[in-house]
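Hi R.,

Here's the input for the NAP complex you asked about:
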Amino acid sequence: MPRRWTAADIPDQRGKTAVVTGANSGLGLRTAEALAAKGAHVLLACRNEIKAAAALETVAAAATGPKPEVLPLDLADLTAIRRAGDHVDVSVGQVDVLVNNAGVMALPRHSRTADGFDAQFGTNHLGHFAFTAAVLPALLRAPTPRVVTVSSVAAWGGVINWLDPNWRQVYLRWLAYSQSKLANLLFTAELNRRARQAGTELVAVAAHPGLSATHLYDLGGERGALATLAGLQQKALVALAQPDRMGALPQLYAATMPDVPGNTYLGPGFEFAGYPRRTLRNPLAYSRTQARALWRLSERLTGVRYEWPQRSSIG
Ligand SMILES: NC(=O)c1ccc[n+]([C@@H]2O[C@H](COP(=O)([O-])OP(=O)(O)OC[C@H]3O[C@@H](n4cnc5c(N)ncnc54)[C@H](OP(=O)(O)O)[C@@H]3O)[C@@H](O)[C@H]2O)c1
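And here is the predicted structure with NAP in place:
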């Protein structure tokens, strides 16, 4: 890998279509901008129309190829996910790169998605599990499709709470976040394995941005002294963080470079900051048993099944 790889080193993306979830803000916006600057047709998959329109202007200003578009997508709603997938299938046709980037972190109050899942597990993992399945037909029309899922250093502290993955008994906000980010890694490993087993060219990889200054740290929701503490914590984290453009580099490398085999995990060189390099992951993320169990749990909870060309051989 080059030592100081930047967005300027992204290969020509003309003729490629990329879908980026959560593209109206932070790392997603920078990813969409950089891909469009290299000529890709970029779809900004966003839940908020107004924020999406503003982001579209930024990405359009950087684009050197086809005009970027907004794809309405709420990952906290399985019906909206199906609708977005249908739109991609019918109107877009082929997707070369899907960047599963959107996320929420450590929500102070336990909230649920439209389908009753914990908001972090539901958005960060189950939403992307269902959305990737919805986009799969379009991905499989591309010659070398790639799915990049954005995890976090927080995955090191993650375990899957098999007894209560939606945190119905006790809600532990940071553990819920870590669980969802470990789930991103297990999902990547299992998706890559299943794609290979089905004889497809699809490659699934993961990336993390270290500590990057984005809206992820606008935690809010606290009251009184806790709100002051949360505000200070947010200011301290953002002050220490690298710029969002830098944080987006590992996922951009994962999305565009040829030397990225399936199930690679990329992060910043100094883990919290720096240029992209291959990185280590929580040992649990290597467990095939856990990856397979999470896949089955995700199928059961969402009712979503992946339609592979040779389904019968997938176990
Ligand atoms: N920043 C970091 O230091 C850091 C560290 C580790 C991992 N990450 C990961 O990086 C990814 C991007 O986060 P970021 O740092 O760029 O934060 P951000 O600026 O808060 O961006 C998050 C994006 O996700 C979108 N999103 C949230 N819920 C959604 C939903 N239900 N449906 C569709 N989109 C939704 C947000 O949309 P709205 O604007 O409408 O809320 C926003 O566009 C996340 O997966 C996060 O876990 C970030």
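One thing worth noting: The chain has a mean pLDDT of 95.

Cheers,
M.
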